Amino acid sequence: MSECVLCRETVTNPLCPDCISEGIEQWLKESGLPSYAPTVTGVEGEQCIRCDKKIDVCLYCHTKQIYEWLKERKTSKLLLREFVDFFHFDLDKKGLLSDEGFV
User: Fold this and answer.
1) What is the pLDDT of residues 69-87, one digit of tens each?
2) Distance CA 63, CA 87 (A)
């Protein structure tokens, strides 16, 4: 297993941020929001089971980066909540959900 370059936790999901972002990009488009360009790209780590790219950012950090980007863009609370509902990978509810008072 590889280590996330942002939080130093073990990357356990077998899909890379790019593959996960396909769904996120579709949601952004359908929501009338601009496309998001990730700030970290995989250069080392395990390989994605879908595309074989390297995975060195965990899904929590990847989705948190996008969530913070959405907040910076003054995205409505309704769309922020929808993003969390669709793309939140913090299963123990200690991150985005509790940070924003959604739990």
Assistant:
1) 999 999 999 999 899 888 8
2) 7
Q: How far apart are CA 68 and CA 80, in angstroms?
A: 10
Nearest one of 46, 45, 40, 1 to 18, comparing CA atoms: 40
Q: Would you say the pTM of this structure is higher than 0.85?
A: no
Closest Cα partner for 18 from 60, 57, 67, 64? 57
Domain borders along the chain are 17-99
Rounded distance between C-alpha atoms, residue 24 and residue 30, angstroms: 10
Q: For the segment 19-41, what is each residue's pLDDT rounded down to a tens digit?
A: 888 889 999 999 999 988 766 55
Token pair recorded at residue 67: 């969530």
Residue 74 buriedness (CB in 10 A; 0-12 / 13-18 / 19+): exposed
